[in-house]
Amino acid sequence: MREIDQTQAAYRRIAAVYADTTVERGQILHDLEAFMKRVPAHSRVLDVGCGPGFDTAILRERQRQAVGVDLSWHMMQSGRQRGVDVPCAQADMCSLPIAAEAVDAVWACASLLHLPRPLLPSAFAEFGRILRPGGIFYMSVKLGDGEQWSEQSYKQQAPRFFVYWQPETIDPLLAAAGFTITDGWQNAGQYGPWLARLSYKH
């Protein structure tokens, strides 16, 4: 799809500056703590849309068996060039190379915001497939309405596609995919607010 292909090309161009800009995790550390309270040490965690792998590294430092996947090889490589040594693989979140019920938790921080709206149920279904029953799912998406292209990314000409969600539009999709929401909140962000959800697989 054009939205995915062009956004992936944008991340190829901005991978280095993105890694330099986001190495300090800021508010995301709060969300990681909330996630880890529900995900015991030694749990198998998949970091979907891991980018440079900063969150994967934090999870592994905290004794979770975390592995990252991202559609952008260049984003993962930008982390390796900065000393982030975590297991990761290039993969499509709608078709993950992982066996059914093979992981205990999925961390999807800011990784669904570029996915075209019609594909979100497929991604949720894939997360449900790989999660064990009772497994934990965290996600954060952009809060808002509609969708748009952003032509400039980190002061470079690198168009990225963004999709915005409200609780009333995304929560029913989680429920339809077999997830029960246990907690949720909104975070202020430099480029607009975020919507976070913690849920578990039935």
Any overview of this molecule?
- It is a single chain.
- The chain is built from 6 helices and 9 strands; from the N terminus they run H-H-E-H-E-H-E-E-H-E-E-E-H-E-E.
- By secondary structure, the chain is α/β, with parallel strands linked by helices.
- It has one domain (about 1-200): Rossmann fold.
- Strands 1, 2, 3, 4, 5, 6, 7, 8 and 9 form a 9-stranded mixed β-sheet that branches.
- The chain is globular, with a radius of gyration of 16 Å.
- It starts with a helix and ends with a strand.
Topology:
Elements: H1 2-22, H2 28-38, E1 44-48, H3 54-61, E2 65-70, H4 73-80, E3 88-90, E4 103-109, H5 120-130, E5 131-143, E6 147-153, E7 156-165, H6 167-176, E8 179-187, E9 194-201
Parallel strand pairs: 1-2, 1-4, 2-3, 4-5, 5-7
Antiparallel strand pairs: 5-9, 6-7, 8-9
Helix pairs in contact: 1-4
